Amino acid sequence: AASDVYKRQQLILYNNVMHNMKKNFTLTFLLLVVIQTYSQTLTCSDFKSGTFLVPADSIVEKSYTVIRKDNQQIEYDKDGNKSIVDIEFIDECNYIMKANPKSENFDAMSQYVNDSGGIKIKVLKISRDTLFYSGLIENDSVRYEMPGILIKLK
């Protein structure tokens, strides 16, 4: 009789442990599904409009915010300076950027870049909310490549 009580207690304990493991597994699985759903990598089309950050690095002196809509983007630096850039999409991912002559800081360098065909942007990869690209300015006498990062904020 004592061994039957012991076996019954062991069975109850085993069932409780298994129930908790199932519950924990289910919760863990649901959490992973939710995380995967919300952390999916964006696609090129997600970078055609919205608000973005270009972080400062060894090439970009100051971080700036980009608001992109349709075929134009407005860039704001931390000092409040504003640049307008026209975008011509070559395909789903790649595009050409040219400074808009109506931009308040359009200068000789902007004109030079435009005369060179603009900055050709080639998307290298997208990881979560970040687009990695290579920009190219090229004409008969100059070929200048610059890597860059565009982070989607909203």
Summarize the SSE layout with pairings.
Elements: H1 2-38, E1 50-54, E2 64-69, E3 72-77, E4 82-89, E5 95-99, H2 108-115, E6 119-127, E7 130-138, E8 143-152
Antiparallel strand pairs: 1-2, 1-8, 2-3, 3-4, 4-5, 5-6, 6-7, 7-8
Q: Could you write a compact summary of the structure shown?
A:
With 154 residues, the protein is of the alpha+beta class. It contains 2 helices and 8 strands.
General description of the model:
A hairpin with a 4-residue loop joins strand 3 and strand 4. The termini are far apart. The chain has 154 residues and is α+β, with helices and mostly antiparallel strands. About 6% of the residues have low confidence. The protein has an eight-stranded antiparallel beta barrel. It contains two helices and eight strands; from the N terminus they run αβββββαβββ.
Q: Descriptors for this entry?
A:
2 helices, eight-stranded antiparallel β-barrel, 154 residues
The shape is rod-shaped
- Major sheet characteristics: 8 strands, antiparallel, barrel
Average pLDDT score? 84
Share of helix, binned: 25-40%
- Say how many strands there are: 8
Instruction: Give the strand order of the largest sheet, numbering strands 1, 2, ... along the chain.
Output: 1-2-3-4-5-6-7-8
Low-confidence residue ranges: 29-38
Whole-Å distance between the termini?
68 Å
**Helix/strand class:** alpha+beta
Order of helices and strands: HEEEEEHEEE
What's the alpha carbon Rg, rounded to whole Å?
27 Å
How much of the sequence is in beta strands? 35-45%
Number of helices: 2
